[in-house]
Amino acid sequence: MGTVVHPRSAPDAGCPVSGGHPAPPPTRPQPVDPDEARTFLEQFYAETRPLIPLDRRLRQVFRDIATTGTYRHTPEELTFGARVAWRNSARCIGRLYWNGLRVRDRRHVTAPADVAAECVEHLREATRDGRIRSTITVFAPDGPEGPGPRIVNEQLIRYAGHRLPDGGVRGDPRYADFTDQVVALGWSRPEPLGRFDVLPLMITGTHGRPELFDLPRDAVHEVPLQHPEFAWFADLRLRWHAVPAISNMPLVVGGVHYGAAPFNGWYLNTEIGARNLADTDRYNLLPVIADRLGLDTSSVRTLWRDRALIELVRAVQYSFDEAGVTMADHHTESERFLTHVAKEESAGRSCPADWSWIVPPVSGALTAVYHRYYDEPDPDARPAFLPPSP
Ligand code: ARG
């Protein structure tokens, strides 16, 4: 997606993720294509059977497009559009609950400070002290007058990567460039520099000038990591945030582009344990854990990395469970995904999926999702969450 790396090494999550930090669109958005509006409304009517007849709604929408260049979704159309965009996300293993997505309609909000305040409210409502709810907040779309707001951060909650004089990074190296950008815009790094410093939101309004907003502490629920057997694990002072909320993928529904539409689900244990904390270009913690475990690290053939990895994923799962924060495990999620595929088939739909993102990054062949192939993803499927613009 956008700046994403090779798919076999990139899959991060199972859910749509991307690497880049988009600039605001430089040009005026095009008028909505009436054919895209029609295709969407036909789908909406076929799946939900609303009360107003389709041809009346179509006439109204075509008239609005002809006179204003765009049209306004009803709240029901918006909710359906956001849910189907999730259903169409070929990289997401968690799609069984697509129809339960909570949609916060904030289409009247455009000013960066108001967008930031609504992102904070989104986090509070989605977190609920750990009983996480899948939620999306939809801000003003792009329109003929100009672009709507954009959230530049890849996710609402991410940790800074502070470049050090020795060439290393303290914190999350994935966000070292983004951290440099916010510092250039006036963000002051915490002192002393931490490994888990929450980054500010960087938001552009309709004028395209970025502004920064700190997240209040109480909107960022975090889980300190501990291990069910090894007391030393807590001494590593690791933590992770409870809510993954992708914020830089535009939602496109019926030809309308919602450039700021942050959405969250809940974490899968392996996203944190087997990727964020383990990847050599992220927190790279396997050598530290192997050392504490007293493993023989003299050769990869001792499988020290594999053994350390399992203990790390175990610690993540155990800590979230103990803290009462919703987290999926890869075994259960794999079963749920196949239930979803079967349900889609019985509804007469195919369920395109990207095998390399669906199969978990540990114990692949222990999960049923590994042992089959899926319908090819269609990049033109709509509604959709699009890759962020470069
Ligand atoms: N892999 C990303 C991360 O570690 C999160 C992607 C979305 N994941 C999800 N479970 N909804 O932060």
UniProtKB/TrEMBL annotation:
Q: Which cofactor does it need?
A: heme
Record key words, sorted? Heme, Iron, Metal-binding, Oxidoreductase
List ligand-binding residues for heme. C92
Domain Nitric oxide synthase (NOS): residue ranges = 91-98
Task: List the residue ranges of the region (Disordered).
Answer: 1-34
Question: According to the lineage, what is the superkingdom?
Answer: Bacteria
Family matches, as Pfam families: NO_synthase
Chain intervals with Pro residues compositional bias: 22-32
Which Enzyme Commission number(s) are on file for it?
A: 1.14.14.47
Q: Name one molecular function that GO assigns to this entry.
A: metal ion binding
EC top class, as a word: oxidoreductase
Instruction: Give the catalytic activity.
Output: 3 reduced [flavodoxin] + 2 L-arginine + 4 O2 = 3 oxidized [flavodoxin] + 2 L-citrulline + 2 nitric oxide + 4 H2O + 5 H(+)
Q: Biological process GO terms, please? A: nitric oxide biosynthetic process
Q: Which family is this protein grouped under? A: Belongs to the NOS family. Bacterial NOS oxygenase subfamily.
Subunit and interaction comment: Homodimer.
Q: What else is known?
A: This protein is similar to the oxygenase domain of eukaryotic nitric oxide synthases but lacks the reductase domain which, in eukaryotes, is responsible for transfer of electrons to the ferric heme during nitric oxide synthesis.
Q: What does this protein do?
A: Catalyzes the production of nitric oxide.
PANTHER family listed in its UniProt record? NITRIC OXIDE SYNTHASE (PTHR43410:SF1), NITRIC OXIDE SYNTHASE OXYGENASE (PTHR43410)
What name does UniProt use for this protein? Nitric oxide synthase oxygenase
Organism the protein comes from? Pseudonocardia bannensis
